[in-house]
Design a protein that fits this description.
Blueprint (H helix, E strand, L loop, with lengths): L1 H4 L2 H4 L11 H8 L3 H11 L3 H15 L3 H35 L3 E6 L2 E7 L8 E5 L7 E13 L1 H4 L5 E2 L31 E2 L4 E13 L5 H10 L7 H31 L3 H15 L4 H18 L8 H8 L7 H5 L8 E2 L7 E5 L11 E5 L12 E2 L7 H13 L4 E3 L11 E3 L2
Antiparallel strand pairs: 1-2, 1-3, 3-7, 4-5, 4-6, 4-7, 8-9, 9-10, 10-11, 12-13
């Protein structure tokens, strides 16, 4: 009944008629990269300096200066095409990075449990299984749960995990509302304790939930729609170029007016005076400036790519060069988000200190070592000895690790040679 009332194609934004073929769709099916490149190319032509140069090319063409018009048009085409292709390549690189760790979930379909199901294929009415470490694939109504808590900091900013339950909630003011208007009453997100929002993380417990919204109809989708309406800020270089274009336009207008008045006072023919004034104004516009700027920024993008940094927009390179202080979250951003145990304490051997070597989830190196408080070398550092199956501490440490592995559901997936990710991937499932 729920899926009939709110069809999945409507909630995912697919309510438009997709059966009407057109030239653009056929061209995009033949070459998938054509549409994004064309759109990026059109965006490049909206820059003020580019518009001025296009105007100067049109004026040159009207004055019979075909060579100048063709050279300016060809230069602008090359510049805009280079920027558009570079942005398309950056977009594809970001998509490939996202595909390295695809968003999957456990869903009940046709009476069978499907683990590792792509989250993008979830529809309204699906029954999703949530467990510790999972990312919620869509807005879901909790049906039942056992000590289910979610991290909603990415949506609400709440740092503490939020406990979720399957019981219904009472919306403030709904008692006095009429039955026809109750459907429009929406409680705050922080009070919806029986809803699991898309993008939030399950910190503990397990449960089952029914998908009620996907795509743009989710709370995260609504935030994304609001973000699309926000106008992107221009970089310092773009601001300077826009100011230069406005200055050149003003100066060119003044020059045309002054020369036209001077020719009129001297008795020159009006058409000849206007032609000379427009020619001087067009010559004052630096048609080589966009080429120099684009080539310089493209070289910066290539240098950043060699350092394993993907730059989506060309002007961002200049903005990064203007930055003096960068504030960033450490875990998962500057690091690989691989938390490991470095020391172990066993009650059976209170005088010994155990440690773990190695880096991250890599299982090819790293050992379990032991040391005592009094066991130090000449420099004052502790001497470490590797723990093996033949040492007396092996039994206690093995039992400790066995209990720890049984008490959690984490796993480490070792990638195959076909995977492009470097090193094993740790998951919390």
């Amino acid at each position: 009944r729920l899926s009939k009332q709110t069809p999945a194609n409507i909630l995912s934004g697919g309510d438009k008629d997709e059966g009407a073929p057109n030239f653009l769709s056929r061209a995009c099916s033949f070459s998938p990269c054509l549409y994004p490149v064309v759109m990026a190319f059109a965006e490049q032509l909206k820059e003020p300096l580019i518009i001025m140069l296009l105007g100067s090319a049109a004026i040159s063409l009207c004055l019979g200066q075909t060579a100048d018009a063709v050279s300016i048009g060809l230069a602008l085409t090359i510049v805009s095409l280079v920027a558009a292709v570079q942005e398309y390549r950056s977009e594809k690189a970001l998509e490939k990075l996202a595909d390295l760790v695809p968003h999957t979930c456990a869903v009940l379909r046709d009476g069978r449990m499907r683990d590792g199901y792509p989250a993008k294929n979830i529809v309204v009415g699906d029954l999703v299984m949530l467990s510790t470490g999972d990312r919620v694939p869509a807005d879901c109504r909790i049906i039942d749960g056992v000590e289910l808590t979610l991290d909603e900091s990415s949506l609400t900013g709440e740092n503490a995990p939020v406990h979720k339950m399957s019981e219904g909630i009472i919306v403030p003011g709904s008692e006095a509302a009429s039955p026809s208007s109750m459907s429009s009453v929406s409680p705050p997100l922080t009070t919806q304790s029986n809803i699991a929002f898309m993008g939030t993380l399950v910190t503990s417990g397990r449960g089952r939930a029914l998908v009620v919204a996907v795509g743009d109809r989710t709370e995260f989708g609504k935030v994304a729609q609001d973000m699309r309406e926000v106008e992107a800020r221009k970089s310092p270089l773009q601001i300077k170029i826009d100011e230069l274009g406005k200055t050149l336009a003003g100066v060119s207008s003044i020059v045309i007016a002054v020369i036209a008045l001077l020719g009129w006072f001297l008795g020159r023919p009006f058409l000849e005076t206007v032609t000379v004034a427009v020619s001087l104004a067009v010559a004052a516009i630096p048609e080589g400036l966009p080429i120099c700027v684009t080539v310089t920024l493209a070289l910066g993008v290539l240098r950043m790519a060699k350092m394993n940094a993907i730059v989506k927009k060309l002007p961002v390179v200049e903005s990064l060069g203007c930055a003096t202080v960068i504030a960033s979250d450490k875990t998962g951003t500057l690091t690989q988000n691989e938390m490991t145990a470095r020391s172990v304490y066993a009650l059976a051997f209170p005088s010994l200190s155990f440690g773990l070597t190695g880096v991250g989830y890599n299982t090819s190196d790293g050992h379990l070592v032991r040391s005592t408080v009094d066991d130090k070398n000449i420099s004052g550092q502790r001497k470490h000895q590797q723990v093996s199956q033949h040492t007396m501490e092996y039994g206690a440490i093995s039992a400790l690790f066995g209990v720890a592995s049984v008490c959690n559901n984490a796993s480490i997936v070792i990638p195959t040679s076909e995977d492009t990710a470097e090193g094993p991937l740790g998951t919390g499932k």
